[in-house]
Amino acid sequence: MGMAGGVANAAGETEGTEVAPLVSSTVVVNEVSTRGLNGQLDEFIELHNMSSQPLDISGYQVRIYSPAGVVTDTIVVPAGTVLQSKGNSGQYVVLVGQNFSGTIADQTNVIPFTLTTAEGIPTAGGVTVQNLAGTKLDGVAFSNAVTQAREGQAAVPESATTDQLNASNTRNILSTDTDNNRVDFSLQLRSAGQ
């Protein structure tokens, strides 16, 4: 018995319909810093393997969104990038901007990037990670307007104030993913690769 509009998937929805994202059990955006002591291009994005198995993320895409929700840049993870299982050295990949000034605790997977936009990662924008099929695995937005990256309520954005120049939006130590950015992320001291 077929359904009008397409074949039903396991959730009972037809192909082609948008399915609400599920809490990620593989790769999450774990930490994002849109600026540092060296200004707007002193930035990084950290991805974390939440699974108990090594994961080859070659070709995965990290998309950068403007405050209007438009993709402004895409970083493609290089071939041969394997994240080790959660709790092991190599469980993170840290994508670093051209003026990155911080330190990285686990330097197993460090990938430099240069964005086409002079401003870098927008403070009121967002970031997502997509697998090879183009499926969004996880995202974080710093404004409720960035619906493509936002999960639940937006995370509190970094500001240009002196006390927050060494801050980043970071998940808790367990990398909890509830699909609500305001719950999952908080402003903390930058801690790339840990």
Textual characterization of the structure:
The protein is mostly beta strands and 194 residues long. It starts with 26 loop residues before the first strand and ends in a 5-residue tail after the last strand. The N terminus is likely disordered.
Give a brief description.
The protein has one helix and twelve strands, in the order E-E-E-E-E-E-E-E-E-E-E-H-E. It has 194 residues and is mainly beta.
Question: Key terms for this structure?
Answer:
194 residues; 4-stranded antiparallel beta sheet; 29% strand
Q: What's the total count of β strands?
A: 12
Main β-sheet, in a few words? Answer: 6 strands, mixed
Average pLDDT over all residues: 85
Query: Could you state the order of secondary-structure elements as H and E?
Result: EEEEEEEEEEEHE
Q: Identify low-pLDDT runs.
A: 1-21
Beta-strand level of the residues, as a percent range? 25-35%
